[in-house]
Write a structure and sequence with these properties.
Length: 604
């Protein structure tokens, strides 16, 4: 539990079980790094190729186009991070459809961290699910955390224990801000139906599994009446902790961050036998405390765990973990949307509190909190952080959109941020720019708007996107925020996808390599230096009128996987806009005409 040497990565969760392949996935998170999401389809493509190829721009492009329709991520509005890029990356534009921004009604935040991944057999006759419940967000944060991975098959009946989980996925489309693709809504409902019927394999030693949705009627979490209890939570509230201790005879330990412990009342701390925090843990800037303010000096704890020991003819350990901090919005006021999972097992089989706090558990990493050395609260900074979060919320709640129209020069497109920028009290500077370009394109949005329009500049078609980065600054030099909003995009250039393709596939060698990726040939040689590279030979043979082995590959694909030729038809169509002669070899058109006719000229 919480072993720093065995971190659970998103990529490992996506690795298919033996004999299965990835089908689709739905994920939820409070905050998200777009660069991490961009890596997900690439990893899936590498797994499909048995990891035999190294990622390059072409394999990245193919993977994103292949998997983007099958992966959906629901994220709290205003909590998409600005990617750290050294140079423009138009591939971020492909993430628009994958990311659905949501919000919690009633003033809370959307806080669950869950991956539901569907795997199928190669012949599609069998399906199974993997559920990953995390305490961390979809970011590169290196904090101490905890994850639970469950696997199960779809049964012929519904399981009562899965009802909260099914309800959670069923409500996701209703939380979305603005219109969402119908396919995304159907996916969430399909997952809800199937997850209700999954029979999960429990971790060794545990006999019971329960899902909870704190604050949701019928699915709320009530702690068990216990003899002992330990709370692990990076952020805490006095009232929430006081309520938790009512359910136990002894509150053995509260493990949190030093600054969170410092903010608690002395009476609250005294409810626990020990108040502890991690020693020499990694620091984080995740910014996920109950007031949603950023804490650059926070220590590296991010796990949320509630451990109870009960006795009913035998000693039992109850482990409850998930997204909910021990705070008022998460547990007491129930404003947030959270998810928890509970496991129950005999203490003799799964261990208990003593094992957790012992030398073989977390004991060697924990130190006692010294109230005499409480962290001094910086009132000026706290006020600046409050102002910053209010401004973030104001911008996130406004109905903004991006309008695109032809620019002043051929090949350029003018982007305009439409919608009234609200009055941002206490914000001294605010700017915005598309995430497909660098911050050099940032435009002032406080003074630059006229009649609700802010001109973001003129960009190439490949850089047109509705993913817009914002930066807000306060009077405090250390209190700033950067975030991304996925805004509705009007007037998308017809050639945008073609332009993105052409930024990656910029010559005939690239076209042939990408073509072979679409055909699914995992044994394609890597391009190498000099005229003797594998692709140089391919180009020479094609120039001489030799269609083998490309002809063989197309013929085999036509007979075994005709649907892939539809993708190739789309590729040829997209690349035919603009510089087709520089990218698509002329002899390929003659060869492709035969297959285009064979598939009936179907339009992708």
């Amino acid at each position: 539990m919480l072993n720093p040497n065995s971190r659970s990565l998103y990529t490992s969760a996506l690795t298919p079980p033996p004999g299965m392949i990835f089908d689709e996935a739905v994920a939820t998170t409070f905050s998200m790094d777009p660069a991490l999401l961009l890596e997900t389809p690439v990893y899936l493509a590498l797994m499909a190729a048995d990891g035999q190829t190294e990622p390059d721009p072409l394999s990245v492009l193919e993977a994103i186009r292949r998997y983007s329709k099958r992966i959906t991520v629901y994220v709290q509005r205003g909590r998409i991070q600005v990617p750290q890029i050294a140079k423009p990356n138009p591939l971020f534009g492909f993430l628009e459809e994958m990311v659905v921004e949501v919000t919690a009604p009633g003033g809370g935040v959307f806080h669950p961290k869950v991956w539901a991944i569907r795997f199928i057999s190669p012949d599609k006759s069998n399906a199974m699910y993997r559920l990953v419940v995390l305490t961390r967000n979809m970011t590169t944060d290196q904090s101490w955390d905890l994850s639970l991975q469950l696997e199960g098959t779809i049964a012929g009946r519904k399981f009562k224990s899965n009802k909260p989980l099914a309800h959670f996925f069923k409500t996701l489309p209703d939380l979305a801000i603005g219109p969402t693709e119908s396919g995304r809504n159907e996916q969430a409902l399909r997952f809800a139906d199937e997850l209700h019927r999954v029979q999960w394999e429990l971790p060794d030693g545990f006999d019971e599994l329960t899902f909870y949705l704190p604050g949701t009627k019928g699915f709320d979490w009530k702690p068990p009446t216990a003899n002992r209890m330990v709370v692990i939570s990076p952020f805490c509230s006095d009232k929430a902790l006081e309520e938790l201790t009512k359910y136990t005879k002894a509150a053995d330990a509260l493990i949190s961050r030093p600054e969170s412990l410092s903010a608690l009342k002395k009476e609250t701390l005294e409810l626990f036998t020990q108040c502890l925090h991690l020693d020499d843990a990694a620091e984080t800037e995740d910014g996920e405390e109950e007031e949603a303010t950023e804490q650059p000096l926070a220590t590296g704890l991010h796990a949320k765990v509630y451990l109870f020991e009960t006795r009913y003819y035998s000693d039992y350990t109850h482990l409850v973990m998930g997204s909910a901090n021990a705070t008022n919005p998460a547990l007491k006021a129930s404003k947030n949307i959270e998810i928890l999972v509970g496991l129950v097992g005999r203490k003799s089989k799964v261990g208990g509190i003593d094992e957790l706090l012992g030398a073989d558990g977390l004991g060697e990493y924990l130190i006692n909190f010294d109230m005499a050395k409480a962290i001094e609260i910086d009132a000026v900074r706290l006020e600046a952080e409050k102002i910053l979060e209010m401004a973030r919320s104001c911008i996130s709640e406004v109905a903004l959109s991006i309008e695109c129209s032809p620019g002043s020069k051929d090949g350029l497109w003018a982007l305009v941020l439409a919608g009234e920028i609200p009055r941002l009290e206490g914000i001294v500077a605010a700017s915005a720019w598309p995430i497909t370009v660098t911050t050099a394109f940032a435009v002032d949005i406080l003074e630059g708007g006229i009649h609700g329009l802010v001109r973001l500049g003129e960009l190439s078609a490949s850089s047109v996107t509705g993913l817009i980065a914002f930066e807000l600054k306060t009077n405090h030099p250390d209190v700033t925020a950067r975030f991304v909003l996925n805004l509705p995009l009007k007037g998308i250039p017809e050639e945008r996808n073609s332009a993105i393709l052409q930024t990656v596939i910029h010559n005939q060698e690239g076209f042939l390599r990408y073509l072979l990726l679409l055909l699914g040939d995992g044994g394609v040689p890597e391009p190498g230096p000099g005229s003797c590279s594998g692709f140089a030979k391919w180009l020479a043979r094609l120039a001489d009128g030799e269609d083998i082995p490309l002809l063989e590959e197309l013929t085999r694909t036509y007979s075994r996987h005709p649907e892939r030729l539809v993708e190739i038809s789309r590729l040829v169509r997209d690349l035919s806009q603009g510089s087709q002669n520089a990218i698509i070899p002329k002899d390929f058109f003659n060869l492709w005409t035969v297959f285009e006719s064979a598939i009936g000229g179907r339009d992708a």
